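User: what does the whole thing look like in 3D?
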Amino acid sequence: MNSRERVLKLFAGEEVDRPPCFSGMGNVTTEGLKSLGQNFAATHLDAKMMAKAAASTYRLFGFECGVAPFDLCIEAEALGCEINVYAHSEDLLYPTIKKKLIHNEAEMEISIPGDLTTRGRVPLMLDVIRLMKKDIGGEAAVGSYVLGPFTLAGQIMELNDLLKLSFKKPDKIGKLLDQLSGVIILVAQEYEKAGVDYITVREMGATSDVLSPRVFKSLILPYLTKIFAKLSVPSVLHICGKTNDIVPFMAESGAKAVSVDQKNDVAETRRKLGPKALVFGNYDPYNVLVAGTPDLIRTTIKKCMDDGVSAVWPGCDIWPTVPPGNMKAMMEVVQNYRR
Amino acid sequence: MATEEKKKELLEKLRNAVIQYDEDTAKEAANEALAVGLEANDAIFNGLVSGMVEVGKMFEAQEYFVPELLMCADALYAGLDILKPHVQQLDLGVKGSVVIGTVEGDVHDIGKNIVKMMFDVAGFTVYDLGRDVPLDKFVQEQLRTDSDLVCLSAMMTTTMTGMKKVIDDLRAKNPNVKIMIGGAPVSQDVADKYGADGYAKDATNALKDAINMIESLKKMKDEVEAKKAK
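Assistant: Here's the predicted 3D structure for the full assembly of 569 residues, as structure tokens:
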């Protein structure tokens, strides 16, 4: 069973020999960039460089997927936001939104460009997916991600306004989330056409650290449900931070799998969702994988599997400076695990 | 001078306005407090701040979430803007100035703004650099303003590592400055590793720590000056 088969079988609900060790989020490493002689900032803007970097974690460590992009700005950029890739910086900095689309409540009536999927870096992303497929698509699962509607709203308008208006004027926010769901569906469907094996929807803005489970259910869940109904490849819903109270809603959204981070009590989630549900998680990709010792990694990863994750999967993007020995320690403990 | 009863009533009104995120009532109560001769300082600490302390508890108990917290902060500022010009003397016993900002690569500033609010109410001079702040800027601003304290915030693990650089730079240029870090991925462990003087679990703790730090800093300065005088 190769990595791609293992991941696809898992999504299809078939027997697998062991949990796969992969991610739906960024997992490019400094080691991978170094092996390719690539600069991080430039990698976000060039299809060949991005595809090669995305495949390098599989190539170097056997991590069982290739995932692009590495930043969270693709949809916002297609909608007209300006991004900053920090080309001047020698540090590893992920692109952020420099100029928002909506600056105050009065600007919330937006229109979605008809040529959305040809704008910004969407066409580049389609090239990246095709290149990844050609490169590692026979052996490893090829994935991409989109933002959830609430998190995307937080990219195109001030988070401060978004949060307060979610409370004061939910109808107005609901209308925006509905429009943004349309955007997300359009982009995700293009990714499907380009050949991704699975898509992750990242809705981290809606974590219970920020929003009440009640608001999640009434304001956000309906639009997530709308998105998952339109996706044909296997889909994952990722929310980080506190999620124990909302995992039942996450499972209700129609996503094939639920992805949570280290703050989630996975044993409890497993009890809540039952033995068949796909639960991905939930190691800390910085404090454990990057800053931890191989021993800490082994105990943490083993605990994830003992608690009942269906796939060993990080709580967020893997921070690039992960030491190669740590990646190796993780892969080994998963490969040797038997339930 | 207001009667004790009227005073109590107004403090309660200020407190509830914050808890119920009611900006209009906060303004009204602040004006009334001034009109009846209530000490502005009293109104701020025993009214507005007392409300915010309760909000903090409700947030911890997950009765309130971030949207409510932000609206409560708006109500607090509505009252504070009216009361602050009338503050005679702050009874915290220590005054200081602080440079605060979210490090480059990070555009999240809600946590930073809540901490900033605590410094505002405590009467600190706050130099707010905003968000996505180039690392050098923190050092330049500290030197320019000779601030006692620098507060760095990072919401994401991916930007937290930039704080180490700022801390090293600040230490090299000004060994006496106190440095405090905060944000979702930050822990005591990270603070120790990066060499920060303090780590803020939340806004209330940030303020307490900041006051302690500045007190110890002032003491240090006094000792140095006492030695020089000899």
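In plain terms: The mean pLDDT of chain A is 96. The first strand of chain A starts at residue 65 and ends at 67.
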